Amino acid sequence: MTAFDEIYRQHLSSVFRYAMRCVGRREIAEEITSEAFVELFRRFDRIDQAQLPRWLFTVVRNGATDFW
């Protein structure tokens, strides 16, 4: 298992719950959550892992703001 896989497993449920609280629609929350993890994957070598899950929550909040 890679470091990314471990982070994904560790934070997926809390990031999704936060997205649900932000948008209130399951399909949108799933999309925003997926986008957050895709962005993490793209930048994985540049993200300070000590900033997780806060970094993911910020990406979700920004995605929810864009949605609204």
Summary tags:
single chain, mainly alpha, 78% helix, 68 residues, globular, 3 helices
Give the structural class: mainly alpha
Gross morphology is: globular
Low-confidence stretches: none
Largest sheet: none
Order of helices and strands: HHH
Total number of β-strand segments? 0
Q: DSSP helix count?
A: 3
* Rg computed from alpha carbons, rounded to a whole number of angstroms: 11 Å
Q: Into which percentage range does the β-strand content fall?
A: under 5%
**In whole angstroms, how far apart are the ends?**
36 Å
Q: What fraction, in percent, of the residue positions are helical? A: over 70%
**Assembly type of the shown chains?**
single chain
